[in-house]
Predict the 3D structure of the following.
Amino acid sequence: MATETMTVDELTSLRLGTLGTAVSEWETMQGRLNTLATGGNGSVSASTLEQQANAADWKGENATITREFVTKTAKQFSDAAEEAKSVLGILRDAHTDFTKHKQDLRTAIDSLAKSNIGVNGNGTVRASVPSGAAAGDGDIHTPTEDELGVAQRRITRILWEATETDRIAARALRKLAKDAHDFTEKGPDSLKQADAQQGKADAEYWRKEIAKGHVEDWDDDKLRRFDEMLKNQRDNPGFTETFATGLRADGTLQLWRDLADPGHGDVPDGERAKLLGDVQQNLSMSLANATHSHTPEMEAWKKDMIAAGSKQYGHEGLMVKPYGFQIMSNLMVKGSFDKGFLNDYGNALRSFEKEKEPFDPKDYWGNPGVAAQLDYTSKGADGDFGEPGSDPMSGFLTATSHNPEFATELFNNDDMADYLLKDRAFYDEDDPFGKGDGTVQSRDALGKALLAAGTGLNPDQPNVVTSYEHTDAQHEVLEGALSRLSGKGDDFPPELRDDMAALLGNYGDEVHQTASSLNKHGTPLDYEQLLEVSTQVSRDQDAYGMLTEGLNQAIIADFHAEHQGDPEEELQRAGQSVGFMESARYHAIVTDKDDPSWPAKWGYHAVGGVANFIPVVGDAVQRGVDSAAYAWQLEEQNRIDDEAKIDVSETFDSRQTYLAALGEEWSSVNPDHKLSQEGNEYMREGVSGNSAFNGNSTANRIAGDPE
């Protein structure tokens, strides 16, 4: 039976007073039973009675029957006292935890309301923007999709924790009360202890079920029960370590091999395939949790799992035998794995491929003799869940993206960074049997891992970034990526365009300062490398939109920042960056001259993706960002509709509306400047227009275009 997550209404209306009364009554009960069991206040106790019975010189039948009766009765009092202690511990912890859950929920709801985010009775967040009249003269903040995503994650987490408290407590109390006349059950003294005991019990039960073999023959109901257990216990070390070490590395790999691809052409489909996707993700999160344990048993499991990467796992009578690396990498798609394990696993996978050089991943991992169907997290060509998942680098890089700290270390390792970004050949795992959409899954995972490395953020979780600050190590990742990827020229991987756009957006201030430089020296980033990567990013419509949106926000933020000297410099820099971007877009069109147009319509924020990585700004700044972005997108759509060509020497001409919008925002920040005075609009637009021309000319010259 699936565990239903507690709702906001249920948690809010929970009557803790009744639970508190139960705690008080059980404190009294436990005290009385303890007195009966052990003595106190001069009273006769079961302990005293047992001592006297054992010391007495019994004769005849009394030596057996009476002594046994007395000692057994005495022990029951002790057992009852111990069981009462367990009940009290469970109830007391439940009361404490539920009090915290309710307070956390109340705090979250009140806090989100200040950002105009409401929460309904089921726990779903939504924008709740007051009318202009209700807001008065103040700014009205409209929550972004990313703010809503973070808010939903916060509420969901609170409700999930409350549900866990309820589930663990209820299960512990039911076990204690299963026999009204037997008090021999040694119960836990706390919810934490109960959770650990329940996890170990579940791990042992399912280990025995798996040991019976033929897990591929489990019916959907049994598989669903297994999945529900994984979902409940995936963050419980009592379960995750016991389960992993109980199966051992070989058993873990064979379990998924048998479930995912039973062989004999009997590949799961339909609802079974969808259910396997849930199992895959919950099993992945369970193993991720287990890797954070450093007990001798778990360290042995990690070592054995890495060693098993080069072994093959199949079925009797079948030639198809995927490697351990292929199986395990498909069990690394969710959760945050320990960075030490990731480091050792990645090194082992790299060494395995290096030993096979000259190594072609497609011919090796994609070989029909080793490629089983191991991934059920997405749909294949037939619309059912299930794809090959043959390249183990894909799962490893996905796990890397979920541990940003490790990702940063990985891409600052020159050998691994060179191998992943420059040397390794990636391949379409669907080809020739799949969707044929051309997406290289492992390279798509590479982009997300690189994005995590440079930003310190998990790209699969909503984030609200508040500053452009980065660690030195994260900055080194960006510099290394620009250096390596700019050297690929037109062979720049298409799957990395959107991720590099988001990464550059996360460093928008440095991108803007570099793009607006009068020359290529002394810039925060390497000007030539940035230009080349921006050009390659601009070959994709959405990625180009993401990059421009990130730069636009950095420009507006620069207008509003504190500066020394004449603020006209910020206006000039804005124009210079616009010219830089137009040059990048022109060279992208030249590269793809056979198909220079984009078919899609533009819509503000429709490009998506980058906002999750751009630092948030105040509402006043955001209005300027929105206004300028709208002007830019109108011009871009007009360009597409008119099939307009961009001339290498006049690219800034197509940005007059956008430049004008930037100028108006600049004037709103600097109303006393002479360029902001009525009648000086021509002068202001001349400053930004000339700067755009200069930026365009500088970029074209450095790109090697003739003057």
Q: What stands out?
A: The beta strands are 117-119, 125-127, 375-379, 385-387. The mean pLDDT is 85. The CA atoms of residues 49 and 74 lie 7 Å apart.
